[in-house]
């Protein structure tokens, strides 16, 4: 079982703090149920399988400390910042590294009396990637502090505690654990499933209501987006661990990855090259076009003059120019045949990952912007199969957004060896196309 929190279920659009808490409580109830179903097998797992599952959680304990520090650095002085600083101090052992939560967890694992591999390099690669993506979103200039509080404040203190409490409940019923309970070091669990973490969760919720609840609506929306992203990530994180723990003996072992270091800047290319899409187009009304690209499609405004605006368009460079009032350059177009369809030329757009493509479809619909070619699958069962959607901006420029079944096949003439193992696009498109 896996929870997928979609934008429709938990959209931040138009949220006030009361509506947010209603949605958050509904999702928390789903999480409790999901966690119970997920961990039921722990009661009968062999010691080796049990250790494999428990060791995987360790990666979060390591990432969480650095992430909380990064979130604190982004917050303005205030009660929320001070409270999170208290949590960080507690996570670090209140000045005694032997009481730091990652070390307490390592002591717990060691006390199980089972073979212990090098813990820094056994994390599931998919889960390390999840943690790295969360950190990248947390420090991204486009992410607000409210988003970070939803992602790592609520996502760390609230959602994490729910999963740990249900895991602990089933863990204590495992025969191996019952047999060796007296020698096991339970200090980590005493902190995370008792009154200590529950008090943290309740105080955080109160501070969110006081500090974010009185801010403009877009802060509540950002909080909601961060919380939704955290819920989705937690669901996937534990499902990956569960799938590994119940993996048949003959099945291939999943890829492992070491815990990464904190990287605050963009990675440097070895050869210094930059691959960045750039396009300049004419528009009928500069301010109307600016509103569309920024508010509907999520671009960020850069330099501007009286006749042009630079836009950061998902990391690429788009410039909109005020076209001559008597010109029709933006309307010059023609239809071109493409795999049984006719596409409008010129057009431009982006190749996105599935998650961003799906969220963009929801964003477009929420602004009542009409598709000229609604979400659908193109080139089905061919190399380069992808989901696509077309729409016009207010000046009639055509845009296309794609999500490939396998991004390695963007230019391919034959299938990648891994394509058939990748989840199909039909469910994604169905969700995006549903009003």
Rg (CA only) = 24 Å
Structure classification = alpha+beta
Supply the CATH architecture of the largest domain: Up-down Bundle
Oligomer: single chain
Could you tell me how far the N terminus lies from the C terminus, measured between alpha carbons in angstroms? 26 Å
- Tally of helical runs: 13
Percent helix range: 40-55%
Strand order of the largest sheet: 3-6-5-4
Question: How would you sum up this structure, described in words?
Answer:
The chain is an alpha+beta fold. It folds into 2 domains: 17-257, Heme oxygenase-like (Heme Oxygenase, Chain A, Up-down Bundle), CATH 1.20.910; 278-433, 2,3-Dihydroxybiphenyl 1,2-Dioxygenase, domain 1. The chain is 48% helix and 15% strand. It contains 13 helices and 12 strands. The chain has a 4-stranded mixed sheet, with helices on one face. A 4-stranded mixed sheet has the order 9-12-11-10, with helices on one face. The protein is globular.
Tell me briefly what this model is.
With 435 residues, the protein is of the alpha+beta class. It is built from 13 helices and 12 strands.
Give the topology:
Elements: H1 17-39, H2 47-74, H3 79-91, H4 101-111, E1 123-124, H5 125-139, H6 145-171, H7 175-180, H8 187-192, H9 195-211, H10 217-245, E2 256-257, E3 278-283, H11 286-296, E4 300-304, E5 308-313, E6 316-322, E7 334-338, E8 341-345, E9 347-351, H12 354-366, E10 371-378, E11 386-392, E12 398-404, H13 426-433
Parallel strand pairs: 3-6, 9-12
Antiparallel strand pairs: 1-2, 4-5, 5-6, 7-8, 10-11, 11-12
Helix pairs in contact: 1-6, 1-10, 2-3, 2-4, 2-5, 2-6, 2-10, 3-9, 5-6, 5-10, 6-9, 6-10, 12-13
């Amino acid at each position: 079982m896996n929870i997928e929190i979609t934008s429709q279920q938990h959209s931040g659009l138009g949220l006030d703090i009361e509506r947010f808490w209603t949605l958050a409580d509904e999702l928390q109830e789903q999480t409790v149920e999901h966690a119970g179903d997920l961990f039921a097998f722990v009661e009968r797992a062999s010691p080796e399988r049990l250790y494999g599952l428990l060791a995987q959680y360790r990666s979060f304990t390591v990432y969480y400390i650095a992430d909380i520090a990064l979130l604190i650095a982004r917050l303005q002085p205030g009660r929320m910042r001070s409270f999170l600083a208290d949590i960080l101090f507690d996570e670090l052992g209140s000045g005694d590294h032997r009481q730091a939560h990652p070390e307490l967890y390592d002591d717990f694992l060691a006390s199980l009396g089972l073979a212990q591999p090098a813990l820094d390099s056994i994390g599931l690669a998919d889960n390390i990637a999840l943690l790295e993506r969360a950190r990248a979103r947390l420090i991204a200039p486009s992410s607000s502090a409210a988003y970070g509080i939803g992602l790592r404040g609520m996502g760390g203190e609230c959602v994490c505690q729910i999963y740990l409490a249900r895991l602990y409940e089933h863990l204590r019923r495992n025969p191996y654990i019952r047999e060796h309970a007296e020698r096991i070091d339970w200090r980590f669990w005493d902190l995370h499933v008792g009154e200590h973490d529950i008090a943290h969760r309740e105080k955080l919720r109160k501070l969110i209501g006081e500090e974010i609840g009185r801010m403009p609506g877009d802060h509540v929306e950002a909080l909601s987006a961060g919380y939704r992203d955290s819920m989705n990530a937690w669901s996937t994180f534990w499902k990956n661990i569960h799938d590994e723990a119940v993996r048949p003996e003959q099945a291939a072992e999943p890829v492992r990855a070491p815990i990464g270091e904190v990287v605050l800047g963009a990675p440097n290319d070895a050869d210094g090259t930059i691959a960045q899409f750039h396009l300049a187009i004419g528009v009928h009304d500069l301010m109307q076009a600016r509103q569309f690209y920024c508010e509907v499609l999520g671009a960020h405004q850069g330099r501007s003059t009286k006749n042009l605006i630079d836009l950061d368009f998902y990391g690429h460079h788009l410039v909109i120019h005020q076209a001559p009032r008597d010109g029709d350059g933006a309307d010059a177009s023609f239809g071109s045949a493409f795999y049984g369809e006719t596409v409008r030329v010129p057009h431009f757009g982006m190749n996105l990952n599935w998650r961003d493509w799906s969220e963009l479809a929801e964003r477009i619909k929420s602004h009542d912007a009409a598709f000229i070619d609604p979400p659908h699958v193109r080139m089905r069962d061919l190399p380069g199969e992808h989901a696509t959607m077309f729409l016009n901006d207010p000046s009639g420029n055509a845009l296309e957004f794609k999500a490939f079944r396998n991004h390695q096949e963007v230019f391919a003439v034959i299938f990648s060896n891994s394509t058939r193992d990748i989840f199909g696009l039909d469910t994604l498109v169905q969700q995006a196309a549903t009003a």
